[in-house]
Design brief:
By secondary structure, this protein is α+β, with helices and mostly antiparallel strands. It is 26% helix and 34% strand.
Length: 102
Amino acid sequence: MRVAIRVRPAADRTAVGPATSDPTHGRLLVVRVREPAVEGRANEAALRALAQALGVRRSDVTLIRSIGRVKFIEVDAPDDVIMRRVEELAQHSDPAARLDSR
């Protein structure tokens, strides 16, 4: 299943959700990461965070296209499970969506 995300690097905490709207790309799941957007560090952190939030291994999550901070991700897992979890994460940023805290 493909998932569209917007990466927010250099955030104060790593978190997945909620969703935001983009006029060009539609609905995007927001992934905040602590790492800066330098040498792919934010992208890798976003893929790790997304995998953890979706309950899959990091190796099941692949970056297939990148347009600035908008990323298109392929998740190798059952579509119905991933779709349900993405919807939960998109609705709001609850404590379960937070991956770490300060």
